[in-house]
Amino acid sequence: MSSLSNSEREGIHVNFEDNRLLPLLYGEHDKHLAQIENRLGVSLISRGNHLAIMGPSDSANVARLALDALYRKLTKGHSVDAAEVDAAVRMANGGLDLASDDQPAIQTRKKRIMPRSPTQARYIKAIAQQDLVFGLGPAGTGKTYLAVCSAVAMLSTGQVDRIVLSRPAVEAGERLGFLPGDMRDKVDPYLRPLYDALYDTMPAEQVTRRLDSGEIEIAPLAFMRGRTLSNAFVILDEAQNTTPMQMKMFLTRLGENSRMVVTGDLSQVDLPSGYKSGLSDALDVLKDIKDACFVRFSDADVVRHDLVAQIVRAYDARGSREENP
After folding, report:
1. Which site among 23, 47, 88, 321 is 20 to 30 Å from 267 CA-CA?
2. Phi-psi region for residue 150, left (φ > 0), alpha (ψ -120 to 50) or beta?
3. What is the per-residue pLDDT across 168-187, written as a single tens digit (0 to 9) for each?
4. Which fold has domain 2-93?
């Protein structure tokens, strides 16, 4: 793919060498092109292997970079779908290349996970390099999923001996006694998203075997008290629903050769009125600790259905209006 001109008046003109890949690049009934047009406010006109990109120069250039990345993925034998198109646009908008071999990636037994936004790329890199990482932001940005994938990759390569996944089991008080069944029956519904991420990155029989052997432990936050977690990858999910004392207790479990990731969304605090979120408190207390890394996601990083990003923006807008009437 090569650019022949780049002026807003004339647009950007590109040619693709392999016509056989164009149906996959453009999508059925050109739906991928329409997707890019809607996201960037450009017009894409195709004739044979030639494509004209018309519109504001910045947006047109982002479209060119996104299409270039998608085309190169196809030449490498990878597939392109609506999610890949969105990811290519997000990455190009942040000056990054979706198809670049230099992008940080997570290699698990079942698949290779690539970042789908510039913030995800920073997050994956931070987890690989830092002992303590906070992933902050709205639902659907991949905070928990990427943390679990990173943990599985490190366990598979022997960088850690076990994975410990934890959540506040019930929104505020972790009052589990009224639920039926044994302890696992009581906490499993609250920890299901962590199980889902495990099964997506490991064969089911391995997940079961490692859970039974203790190499993977999934437990409510209350069970972390009094422990020192060494040679482990430790994840605290839904951290906005911890109290400051619970957060301090969890963070001080970090032992030798361990990695810790804390994820949460401060717009989704379920603590009773008057209780301060332990996540909010930790951000204030730890802000000057250089070895604690904070990665903040926004609605632009939502990788679920596009409607999720619109929902997040709508709620954020209402919150801003209430704070600044």
Report:
1. 88
2. alpha
3. 865 444 454 555 565 556 66
4. Ribosomal Protein S8; Chain: A, domain 1 (3.30.1370)
